[in-house]
Amino acid sequence: MWHPKLCFYQRLSVSLVGGFFLVIALLTTASTYLQTSIKHEGEQRLHLKLAEHLASDNPLLKTGVYDYDALKNLFHALMLLGPSFEFYFVDINGKLLTYSAKPGEVVRDSISLGPITEMIEGNASFPLYGDDPKSNDKQKIFSAAPIFNGDKLQGYLYVIVGGSQYDSIIDELQQSKGVQQFALIVFAGLLFLLFALLLLFRFFTAPLKRLSDDMDRFRNNGFDLTGSGIQLLPWRNESRNEVQRLGFAFNEMLKHIDKQWQQIKANDSQRRALLADLSHDLRTPLANLQGYVETLSLKDKQLDEKDRAHFIQICMKNLRNLKRLIDQIFELAYLESGHIKLKLETFQLAELLHDIAAKFKIKTEAKNIELAVLIDQASGFVRADIEKVERVLSNLIENAIRHTPPNGKITLEVSDKAGKLLVSVVDTGVGISSEELSHIFDARYQASNTERDATTHVGLGLAISQKLIALFDSELEVSSELGCGTKFSFCLEMIEPM
User: Fold this and answer.
1) Count of H helices and E strands in the chain?
2) Whole-model pTM over 0.85
3) Distance (Å, rounded) from C-alpha 351 to C-alpha 374?
4) 3-state secondary structure 98-159
5) Pairing mode, strands 381-384 and 345-348
6) What's the rounded Cα separation, in Å, for the pair 430 and 483?
7) How far apart are CA 106 and CA 87, in angstroms?
8) Buried-most residue among 30, 271, 326, 431 (CB within 10 A)?
9) Which residues touch 411 (CB under 8 Å, ≥6 apart)?
10) What is the reported pLDDT for 16?
11) Homologous superfamily (CATH) for 342-495
């Protein structure tokens, strides 16, 4: 298990150092084993026929062994000529009969004949190791040949290649100053390589650490970029470094999250204000309704028919205002929930506009306002939700009627705009100031010059209309001038009739 306080670079460094030394140890062991194996195989193949030549060329061995003292002297003489060899004569059971070693150096009485037999029969794979008479557990490469007395096998000439004297010299050489210096140089070079690799890892992991620090700061600040003025580090999106691109994507994600977070807070603030305003708007008709109902209840017998009818009329008016307000609240909440389903159908826009104009004819005539329909595309067909389009146009026309003085004019216009139908509601009313124009789509907002009438208005109509138009991938646009009137416009996709 990693210690929880170790950072990624530290873990990587520990893994690198551990893996580095493990690989070095494995390579050293494998290299030593391979070098020793190759060396032994080469020496054994080189001296493979040594015992056979001695057995066939020397008179003491050629005709069989009779004088072991003479044979020992022969072995001693041969060892002087070849100090790296040790000579042994063993019987057919592997017992050592005589040898070239000094008294006390040989610790075995016998050796295994298996490797000797394998070599003589020619089935050996090299290097082939046999027992070392001077050790109870070591094995060494050798050369061997059978010794016959006539046709009878008398024993074996067993020659150790690289005896104890050879090993002593090799050990001294390995402990020499030159070898130690070479080993030190190699070790220093490996350490330098390890240090260079650690620096390289540091260089590659530094951007990852910076990115991790950015994430920690963002989290510790409550996932808010503006609270304590967090400065995001610059990252390059065009870089081929994956960490740079990841950092750039992280910054973009943070900005997007922060934008959404700020929008959520703004919406929450607006919702709280809207709730407070709507509570007030609901309380007013309810209080009026309660007052008149209580009056009717308490003074029912004291009121004449005229007063009773008047009070009932006022109650009905407050009920209608209350129902209108509640309907608009639910409609706005439903639109904001995002679960609206459109009932798309193909219809002629001109026909819908004439129907809506006819619906408002009584209201416009009562206020002496002209309501005209001006259509460039008389046969223009659209595919939309006719009920929601009618709802938007009705809201806009009601606003226009309320803000247009007597003898004014309201025009429903349809024109072609880049393959779409541009629908406009134009009035000659009081207009909206440029300072207030950007706020008119906010829920509950009413312009300072809003015309008052007998009906309660809570400022939700335009907010609802804007969200309805957004369902058609369009936008409700407005242009206005104080004293000259206002124009609301939106676009619908024009299609060919079936």
Assistant:
1) 14, 12
2) no
3) 12
4) EECCCCCCCCCCECCCHHHHHHHHCCCCCCCEEECCCCCCCEEEEEEEEEEECCEEEEEEEE
5) antiparallel
6) 5
7) 12
8) 431
9) 371, 372, 373, 374, 424, 425, 426, 427
10) 74
11) Histidine kinase-like ATPase, C-terminal domain (3.30.565.10)
User: Rounded distance, CA 158 to CA 112, Å?
Assistant: 11
Closest to 411 in 3D by CA, of 356, 370, 372: 372
Which residues in 29-102 belong to E strands, given as ranges? Answer: 85-90, 96-99
Instruction: Break the chain into its structural domains and give their ranges.
Output: 47-174, 242-336, 342-495
Q: Could you tell me if 16 and 201 are in contact, meaning their C-beta atoms sit under 8 angstroms apart?
A: yes
Rounded to whole angstroms, how far apart are CA atoms 476 and 256?
25
What distance in Å separates the CA atoms of residue 410 and residue 486, rounded to the nearest whole number?
10
Task: Give 285's strand partners.
Answer: none
Element (H, E) at 372: strand 370-375
Report yes or no: 483 and 334 within 8 Å, Cβ to Cβ: no
Burial 409-425 (b: 16+ CB within 10 A, else e): bbbbbbeeeeebbbbbb
The SS3 assignment for 415 reads strand
Q: Are 460 and 443 a contacting pair, CB within 8 Å?
A: yes
The topology (CATH level 3) of 47-174 is Beta-Lactamase (3.30.450)
User: What are the backbone dihedrals phi and psi of residue 99, each rounded to the nearest 5 degrees, phi first?
Assistant: -165, 175
Look-up of token digits 């190791």? 129
Q: What would the DSSP string read from start to end of 282-329?
A: HHHHHHHHHHHHHHHHHSTTTS-HHHHHHHHHHHHHHHHHHHHHHHHH
Residue ranges of the chain whose pLDDT lies below 50: 1-2, 448, 452, 454, 456-457
Structure tokens at 374: 């001006």
Longest CA–CA separation in the chain, Å: 162
Instruction: Answer yes or no: are the C-beta atoms of 426 and 411 closer than 8 Å.
Output: yes
Give which of 91, 37, 29, 101 is closest to 64, Cα–Cα: 91
d(CA 460, CA 445): 8
Residue type, 496: E
For the chain, first and last CA: distance in Å?
A: 72
- Residue keyed to tokens 């020659």: 159
Q: Which residues contact 435 (CB under 8 A, 6 or more apart)?
A: none
Predicted pLDDT at 172: 61
Here the tokens at position 282 are: 């609901």
CA distance 70 to 400: 139
Q: Look at strands 139-149 and 152-161 and give their pairing.
A: antiparallel
CATH class of 242-336: mainly alpha
Tens of pLDDT along 184-241?
A: 787 788 788 878 877 877 777 777 777 777 777 777 777 666 655 556 667 777 777 7
Least Cα distance to 94 among 111, 118, 109 occurs for 111
